[in-house]
Design goal:
By secondary structure, this protein is α+β, with helices and mostly antiparallel strands. It folds into 2 domains: 7-83, Glutaredoxin; 94-211, Glutathione S-transferase Yfyf (Class Pi), Chain A, domain 2 (Up-down Bundle), CATH 1.20.1050. 57% of the residues lie in helices and 7% in strands. It has helices at 3-6, 18-29, 49-54, 73-83, 94-128, 135-155, 169-181, 187-192, 195-205, 208-211, and strands at 10-13, 35-38, 62-65, 68-71. It is globular, with a radius of gyration of 18 Å. The structure holds glutathione. Glutathione binds at residues 17-19, 41, 58-60, 72-74.
């Protein structure tokens, strides 16, 4: 194996995963050459035992660079931003940096579960795969989804991206969540109530990093 191979970062995961896509978006935006090693956490019997040595909670992604192993997307993305050259994806000033971290927290704690699992999976992928939508779960999720969108719209700063004129981790965290959410029927009318957020999403979809990380399923 050449030296170049040794220093090429490896991301473990599946391209359908929201969190794997967040890490991939960061790698692409930083123009880091990386290898995606497939791990399917939803395979029958769960992830392979070998993978659990990297990520004992059985979630994806996991990451390795020059023998340094980490997991948790927040740690991976900040490491990639700080360890590699390229445009910085975290504002230096305390206030925009705090707003970015707040948006990351909203995605982790509320938006991922609500917009992806409660709305997209329940109303799109479950029925497509022959399952039955849990209508009570959808009904409980709708007001939470409204709060997510209202808060994201309120936090969005003036400019092309969530925090203004530069793409940050906030944009790259939210984009894969919206990638699934927009496929749900309720997404368009909900987004239409927040025109600046809807315009942001249309802009994000034009980025090369988004186009080249589109899930294959
Ligand atoms: N806190 C983890 C969350 C990662 C996560 O939830 N990944 C999902 C796929 S998008 C997963 O592995 N799900 C498998 C499961 O829930 O068993 C991180 O930030 O990396």
């Amino acid at each position: 194996m050449s030296q170049a191979d040794l220093s090429k970062p490896i991301l473990y995961g599946a391209d359908y995963s929201v969190y794997v896509r967040i890490a991939r978006l960061v790698l692409v935006e930083k123009q880091v050459d990386y290898e995606l090693v497939p791990v399917d956490v939803f395979a029958e019997g769960g992830p392979p035992a070998q993978y659990l040595e990297r990520q004992p909670f059985g979630r994806i992604p996991a990451f390795e660079h020059d023998g340094f192993r980490i997991y948790e997307t927040a740690a991976i993305t900040r490491y990639v931003d700080e360890a590699f050259p390229g445009p910085t994806l975290q504002p230096a000033e305390p206030c925009p940096r705090a707003l970015m971290n707040q948006i990351l927290g909203i995605v982790d704690s509320y938006a991922y579960r609500t917009l992806v699992w409660d709305l997209y999976v329940e109303t799109v992928s479950k029925p497509r795969d022959g399952g039955k939508t849990d209508e009570a779960r959808v009904a409980r999720a709708l007001p939470v989804a409204e709060t997510c969108l209202a808060e994201l719209a309120r936090l969005k700063r003036h400019g092309e991206w969530l925090l203004g004129d530069a793409v940050t981790l906030a944009d790259l965290y939210l984009a894969p969540v919206f990638g699934y959410f927009e496929k749900a029927a309720m997404a368009a009318p909900m987004l239409a109530r927040h025109p600046a957020l809807a315009a942001w999403w249309e802009r994000v979809k034009g980025r090369e990093s988004i186009r080249t990380t589109e899930p294959t399923i």
